[in-house]
Amino acid sequence: MADEDSEWVVEGIAGYLGSPEWVIPVTDFMENKCTVFDDEDENKLTYTEIHQQYKDLVEKLLETYMQDVGISEQQFLEACSSSFAKSKTLQTVFQPILATDDFNMFRALMVQKNMELQLQALRVIKETNGALPECLLDGADVMNELEKQEMDILQEVIKRSKEEYDLEMAQRLQSEQEIGSTSRNCSDVTVVEAGSIQRHASPQHISTNKENTTSLKREELKAVDQRGVLMGPGKNSSSAPSTLPLEPVVLPAVRAPVKGTEPLAVVREKGSSNAGQGWIEEARKEAGISKPFTELSTEQQEQLQQRALYLRQQRDKLLALKKEQKPKPAIPVEPPSTPAPTPSTPDDGPRMNGASSVREDRVPAQTGSSPVGGQEKPKDISVEEKKKLQKRKHLAEKLKEEVIKK
Amino acid sequence: MKSTGHPVWQVAGWIIQVKSLMHGRESQEEHGLCREPIGAEKRPSQQSVLIKGFFSVLQKLKGTTEKELRIVLLGLDNAGKTTLLKQLSSEDVNTITPTQGFNIKSLTSHGMKLNVWDIGGQRKIRPFWKKYLENTDLLIYVIDSADKKRFEETGLELSELIGEENLIGVPVLIFANKQDLATASPASEIAEGLNLHTYRDRAWQIQACSATSGEGVQMTFLLILITSHDLPFTP
Questions:
Q1: What are the residue boundaries of the structural domains of chain A, listed by start?
Q2: In which residues is Mg(2+) bound (chain B) (predicted)?
Q3: Cβ A294 vs Cβ A348: under 8 Å
Q4: Is A2-136 a domain of CATH 1.20.1520.10?
Q5: For residue B35, which residues of chain A lie inside 8 Å, CB to CB?
Q6: Among the listed residues A263, A160, A261, the one whose alpha carbon sits nearest the alpha carbon of residue A209
Q7: How far apart are CA B171 and CA B138, in angstroms?
Q8: Measured distance CA(A27)–CA(A182) in Å, rounded
Q9: Does this complex have an ipTM over 0.85?
Q10: Interacting residues of A338 by C-beta distance below 8 A, sequence separation 6+
């Protein structure tokens, strides 16, 4: 008799804990108060206050429930002690009540609730805006890494462009001194430049220049020719982006490398503006701007420089892409070679065939592409090929075995 | 009982005895209502008993056959409460900052679960102390033995705690901390300064220690201390 009674009481309480009369106020409370609960090791004093409020709420709810149902406290306690010990499933149901007596449990519940709400909010933002604003993207670490990568790339770009700029400056200087100028503008510039170098440049720099001259003279001439060719269409079509990456020589990054640490710094201070102008002059021509660089508005000058920088970046990106692509062809070869899915049922047969045929298609395509690419290593591929063939044979054997066995 | 068990078990038995005594009294039930916000409707104390009974049953449900003790760690700011707590739970004691709120650690020792509450000691937090005293089984009061200027202040705080209704009869363990410092006063001197010998209603003990080095703060040692002491407490 007593057992039946208590069972009824227990079921009643469990039912009550699932009913809106209980769930709504309790979840309301949690959702309202959980925002201050974070994952910190130390607890805030407000936690205790909220815990106290929670205790009061639960006591009040239980009290009203017992009054409504008309359970005496005696029945209530008996019920608890009898059946509860038997059913473990009820324990989770009673967790919200246990939390009144166990601060750590209460805290865990609240922290969890807070997390859930935050995730929900993020989802809502994502749905309404399509994407999360940057400030909400989790993981400052990731962002920092990206930024760092970007900075590294940028520095590399600046370094390289400076090297190239130095080299070409030297080449140009020498070639123009010896060959004579092709354009008045440039010759003027170089005369000034030469003068300044003689006055200010370190002897080291000049000697390297001289060493370079003879070997570089011809290349420089060629380069000048090419530039002349390129300049033709470039003038009319105002900076078609497709042609831009072809002219990385265009001396952009004029400003960027002008940092005082280099031995050239002294020269630069006087010479860079002049020399840089010479180069920008050309960039200007290519961009189809008619006025000489010095006469351009600062805005246009900036534009030119930006364009130059952009070109360099584009080129480097392309280079990086190519670099990435080179090792890539090896990767798609590998996945099919792993014999992970070995289908045994006849239903899978056709699909398998299809897959293998695709693979076969890919193989000639690859070997075919190697002469075109020129850079591909045929040896590697043949090794790869052999491996693949072997693995395919293995696969075929396995398939055979399985099919035959069945 | 004394002859059979490990000293620690005696402690447990003794403390539980104290607890049951406390909870059996009428006044204690009244205290149960103290946690309600001021101005809240007073409900019959029976309800409180019922809820408590309910919890005790639920506690059995959790499968915790072990005894649970609630220990509250108090003292002035910079006394070393959090360091002591971390030392007791074998955590790193080198990265401790002033506690703005409170810390809780559950330690298991000799089949007992010790829930240790460490509440910040800054002056502005001290008014909140009394909210954490209910159902306390042991008060640990930490003193910076080298901070002579504040001996009076810490003594006042302690005597105020001793007068708290929720702590009536609750044993006190005083840690004379920072004994590693050359300027630290010896524990006996501090005991005298605090007039500990006048405590007649509870067990007390003072223990010299260094929370940073861990000297004198082993939990077992701590529990033995309480029992081995000639208890002035008579129920």
A1: 2-136, 151-324, 330-405
A2: 82, 99
A3: no
A4: yes
A5: 52, 55
A6: A263
A7: 5
A8: 83
A9: no
A10: A391
